[in-house]
Amino acid sequence: MAALPPYSSTAQITWYYAFRIICGLIFFFLIFPIMVIVPLSFNAENFFTFTPKMLALDPAGYSFKHYQDFFTNPDWQQALWNSVTIAPVATLLATGFGTLAAIGLSQSHVPFKSAIMAILISPMIVPLIISAAGMYFFYSRIGLQGTYWGVVMAHAALGTPFVIITVTATLVGFDRSLTRASASLGADPVRTFFKVQMPLIIPGVVSGALFAFITSFDEVVVVLFLGSASQKTLPWQMFTGLREQISPTILAVATLMVAISIVLLTALELLRRRSERLRGLSPG
Amino acid sequence: MSSTTTDTSSNAMPDDGVVRAADGTPLKKRLARALRREKLRSLMLIAPLLIFIVLTFIAPIADMLFRSVENNIVEDTIPLTVEALADWDPASDELPGEPVFAALHADLLIAVEERIHTRLGSRLNYESSGMSGLFRKTGRRVKRMDEGDYTAQFIEADEDWGDLETWRVIKRFSPPYTPGYFLNAVDAEQTSEGLQLKPENERIYLTLFNRTIVMSLAITVSCLLLGFPIAYLLAHLPLRTSNMLMILVLLPFWTSLLVRTSAWKVLLQQQGVINDFLVWIGLIDDTNRLVMINNQTGTIIAMTHILLPFMILPLFSVMKTIAPYYVRAAKSLGANDWTAFWRVYFPQTIPGIGAGAILVFILSIGYYITPELVGGTSGIFISNRIAYHISSSLNWGLAAALGTILLGLVLLLFYVYDKIVGIDNVKLG
Asked: Best exposed site among A149, B61, B81, B291 by fewest CB in 10 Å?
């Protein structure tokens, strides 16, 4: 897709530009729905569409009232609080277990490797509604349904496959002779792990943790079945809001969540670059 | 060699041709021990997560599979009746004998005391409507029954007890395991004439499975049509530009599912942005605004948008590895642009298409949130029905059976995916 050679025919030139226009339209399709909610969240009216005042760029057409509602409404505040207390704990569990397992899986002789891998990855493959159904049945048998720890454990289980995949990916490029060198210099395995291995795989661990965090933070199906009213998270509140009483506060929340995604995306991209630089895969 | 044993001085090592480590143990043994230790160490590292996942995830799934066939309720609620019914032949034209009615009376007395007879009624109601009412009504009468001639008293309480069909249902569902939920889930029923599909207008689950698969295919195809050009463009632009444009793909990927679904709700509503715009430019009349939400169109548009990155990313990573020489060679041999693309380039992208298509298809047949919010009644999937049976109709066995079928379908597709792409090659972001 380099620039057009000078001998191109008219048809080739037309197609070259037509193709770019088509791609532009598809990019528009991808990004427009996300962008459109940002201005709408500043709507001064309780509408889900642009008012004439907004189109005329009249400041009176815009307001922060939906944001104000979000930050003062106890329902939304409770949901926000639940989200920020559930997601980090689930992330911590998923990252801790996941990193250890990924290191174990990357050793050269692991018995039943593919079977173990299949089990560990399964929470990512099984449709959420099935996970939710199974967990609902099982957790209500053992009394975890409707509890904080039930939701946290379910979210941790859903997040671990991402940690395993990202950490395993960083370990693929890991130079084994480094741990041997460290051992030959007298470091015990724990010290070797923290001083040699950990600094090198940390980008993979952090990006896995980010994936696990966003999985829990965005998750709605499982929490809908497993949680009780006191575990109502932000996505759950949005879900009920969209289904029952549509309030434009949802758009304000959505805008804030887009901002969070942008922050996470940037963090991941920086990590990816750092990891590639460390492993000498790209000039940086 | 082993025969010529040389007499070495102290702690003589038998020179039998075995390579030995410094302490005299055969090297083979030492190596095996080291290998075992290494295996054990890696298993120790994996064990915590494995146990965690088995307890929090695999056990629930297994529980669901078990629930889809479990049927202890009949035997638990009316154990004597089940025992007494063992001798009765459901194919016969006679009602069960007096001992069965007496057993039923004894069972129901206890069941009514524990207030569990209505639960049995609603369980059997899934198989034959009217059972719920029958048990509730009989439950009120059973205490007032006199000793002796229970047959007549039961039939007097509700004439359905004189109906052979009632007894056939009870007999059919008395074993602790039942295929009943699965049969229900595929719209079949076990009648006295054997297995049969339900009448055409009552086949809700087959219709739903069918619709889920057809709509998922439609979503997969539209993702492919939209994703292919983007992946091609990104793979062939200079690195700096493609990295910039990649953000436009990754941002939706990272944005919360609910944010994107609410965005589509805002856009597609009758009073929404797209309709407003179309009215404003005069393309449609204000009175007949397009209905794009709460139907299949809404589900397909929103889900195509949500799943598009899952198509673009694998396609992109495959296209990135396609060497440019082949297309150049084809052109130098006289192929025009189209032939070079279609005969040389396109076949090399098939692995990417396969990976992306299966991924999108797997994800979409299990979708719940988006169909629930923008699908209305005509655009919902099988998952929505599962959710309905869990939380509203409380027919958990049927929900479990539907879930098991869906799970089987997904695992089958995933097996194919694993064969094409390999489970280790799943890439994120």
From this structure: A149
pLDDT digits (tens, 9 = 90+) for B253-301: 888 889 999 899 888 888 888 888 888 888 888 888 888 888 899 999 9
Same domain, B90 and B233: no
Q: Determine, for residues A12 and B337 on separate chains, whether the beta-carbon distance falls below 8 Å.
A: yes
Structural contact between residues A240 and A224, judged by C-beta atoms closer than 8 angstroms: no
* Residues 6 or more apart in contact with residue A49 via CB below 8 angstroms: A40, B266, B269, B271, B272, B273, B276
Q: Which residue has the tokens 């009758």?
A: B270
Q: Which of A129, A138, A201 to mutate against chain B (most B CBs within 10 Å)?
A: A129
Q: Which amino acid is at B362?
A: I
3-state secondary structure of B393: coil
Residues B394 and B340 in one domain: yes
Q: Does A126 touch chain B (CB under 8 A)?
A: yes
Q: Which ipTM did the prediction report?
A: 0.86
Q: Is B34 in the same domain as B85?
A: no
Q: Which of B50, B256, B383 sits opposite A218 (nearest CB)?
A: B256
Least confident of A103-112, A119-128, B43-52, B212-221: A103-112
Each residue of B103-137: pLDDT tens digit? 888 888 888 888 888 888 888 888 888 888 888 88
Residues B164 and B218 in one domain: no
Query: Quick check: helix, strand or coil at residue A276?
Result: helix
Please state, in angstroms and rounded to a whole number, the distance separating the CA atoms of residues A181 and A176.
Answer: 9
Which of B56, B388, B392, B402 best tests the A interface by mutation, with the highest count of A CBs <10 A? B56
Chain B residues touching A37 at Cβ < 8 A = 259, 262-263, 266
The answer to whether A233 contacts chain B (CB < 8 Å) is no
